[in-house]
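Re: export button greyed out
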Amino acid sequence: MKNDSTYHHGNLKDSLIETALIMVKKNGIKSLTLRDLTKEVGASRSAIYRHFESKDTLIKAVIKAAFEKLDNSISVDIAESDDEINSFRKIGINYIKFAIDNPNIYRMMFGHEVGIQREESCDIENEEEAIGFHKLIALVQKAQDNGLFKEDNAILQATIIWSMMHGLSNLLIDGHVIIKDNLDDLFDLSLSTIINGMKKTN
Amino acid sequence: MKNDSTYHHGNLKDSLIETALIMVKKNGIKSLTLRDLTKEVGASRSAIYRHFESKDTLIKAVIKAAFEKLDNSISVDIAESDDEINSFRKIGINYIKFAIDNPNIYRMMFGHEVGIQREESCDIENEEEAIGFHKLIALVQKAQDNGLFKEDNAILQATIIWSMMHGLSNLLIDGHVIIKDNLDDLFDLSLSTIINGMKKTN
DNA sequence: ACCTGAACACCGTTCAAGT
DNA sequence: ACCTGAACACCGTTCAAGT
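Workaround output, generated via the alternate export path:
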């Protein structure tokens, strides 16, 4: 499978990230050790420090890769459609579906596994995360322009939508809420609550 | 300070839980080691296993204690009042305030630090957590009875309210949402969105 | 119902020496 | 740009022996 010698295989950095993603998905980040990771990837234990300063740095890269996967999962062609409600529905369903299908990954992304210093930057650190959020803000703005939502701070409205999806995802994957049969009902109600709650009142 | 001999001090089990709570609050659960904990409490390293099967068992007890603290924080005398909106507001504010004031504790409570098996029990494991949730369900039911909320599955409605508060808390304490000046606006909008979204339509 | 002290397997990380 | 192999400090956990 390897392209060249036993020593130097093509792209160790990407292999580490990709394999770590698989291992976290399977068993959670708590069981991810550098020893297992390097063994799985076929590298030596110290090779990892050629590409990453520490385990935390590696995890940050894995988180970044995970946000790219999430972005791909929820990216539906919302640009063409004029039906914002349907766009919100699709995005929300894909978002929660991603969390349910990848609970360990989702926990790693938001679970504060790495002590990230956000005090200084004063902005969302992860670029992929920021991009996804700004897409949501744009959609909210469009909903305002079309008269679906009342005119208000679009960032706050987007934050609230995100909070609902994030909260639902977390409660579901962590087993705080036991919903098996009527997951669709729960999601529908959450969506309609938000849509109705933000509707233009006249 | 100690009541009797240097060896046997009154209640080691409670001391461990209480001290662990303080240590987690200060530096997060990742930095909580049994060695530090027993040293802080003045016990030997192996003494911990007289009261807890493992570190995970200890953490579960600490989480339980944390839920009791949360329950005390959000418990407002909602029984007397007939103003459900005000009750929701008080509960929500206290809930988020607890999370913001105790981010490390809150993360421990919901952060899946201990791999809890919920598949078998099929119900919320933590008793304190269940109690708080059922209080919320009762309040939602009351709001339905009084005609504030539309008639629907009260459990789902309560879940959605909890999701919003939980999502907001997580995004805030983990720095995904940088809100400093207009935190009140964010909370007000989240509350009004839910109240309006669940209102009886007629 | 604790204590001391030693031991174990397992971590992340570093380093000297090779290719 | 990797490798091997050894080492370090730090974990959770166990155990034999005391009081």
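Chain A touches chain B through 49 residues (CB under 8 Å). The button fix ships in the next patch.
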